[in-house]
Design a protein that fits this description.
The chain is built from nine helices and five strands; from the N terminus they run E-E-H-E-H-H-H-E-H-H-H-H-E-H. The protein is of the alpha/beta class and 234 residues long. The termini are far apart.
Length: 234
């Protein structure tokens, strides 16, 4: 967990039972005023409706965006079956607890339609890398050492994955990680600015946690310095 002023950030794996336990335990023990989660309105609705990606989504997401959504849904569902969870169960637990304790719920991610449409800009080289990775995977060493899917991956494993994605899939790295990290950090900063005395719990994927924390810390540090300078000028 990372903490920045009144914001506490839990990094989760969207299919791990450990993530559900971490989120549930923290909320039960600390009763934060606001629970901020890595979702938008459409994904929150989909999480509780159990609707599969539909061919009608093409008109909103575009053809490439639709296939990225379909592929992501398929992979997470398959991995979730291996550990006995459904993708996003830790987010569901957080939403239910927010309702039970009458806590405020904040959706801090950008709309999924925007994210998936931006992914359609993936380059030919990245597509080729993806094809090569699939062909090579049965015969080569894995990018990282195998880890327990029931737990949140270690920071070392997460960093190795992020570095690999940044090198071989720069568009995916920019769209899925860098841009969304900035958006979620900005939304969290706005929350703490609008609710300065509120205890805020942010629940995001483990690959986002450190970057969001660093962006937030810099924003808050810059804001504090600006306030001091303004007071001195007065």
């Amino acid at each position: 967990m990372k903490s920045c002023q009144n914001i506490h950030i839990i990094g989760t794996s969207h299919i791990s039972p450990e993530s559900i336990a971490l989120v549930t335990q923290y909320i039960n023990n600390n009763k934060p005023d606001i629970i901020a989660i890595e979702l938008d309105k459409q994904r929150l609705k989909a999480l509780f409706s159990h609707n599969k990606p539909s061919i009608t989504d093409i008109k909103h997401l575009g053809l490439k965006g639709f296939f990225f959504n379909l592929l992501g849904h398929y992979i997470e569902k398959k991995l979730g079956k291996l550990v006995g969870t459904s993708p996003g169960d830790e987010m569901k637990a957080a939403v239910r607890l927010a309702r039970n304790y009458k806590l405020k719920l904040a959706l801090i991610d950008q709309p999924i339609e925007i994210t998936l449409k931006k992914l359609s800009k993936i380059t030919f080289k990245e597509k080729l890398n993806f094809f090569i990775d699939i062909i090579k995977s049965p015969f080569s060493q894995p990018i990282i050492k195998p880890f327990d899917l029931k737990k949140v991956p270690s920071e070392k494993a997460i960093n190795q994955i992020i570095l690999y994605i940044r090198k071989h899939y720069p568009t995916i790295h920019e769209v899925l990680l860098e841009e969304r990290n900035k958006i979620m950090a900005k939304n969290l900063y706005t929350l703490t600015h609008n609710h300065p005395n509120a205890k805020i719990l942010a629940i995001v994927g483990a690959a986002h946690k450190n970057a969001i924390f660093n962006i937030l810390r810099n924003k808050i540090h810059h804001s504090n310095n600006s306030s001091i300078n303004n007071n001195l000028q007065l």
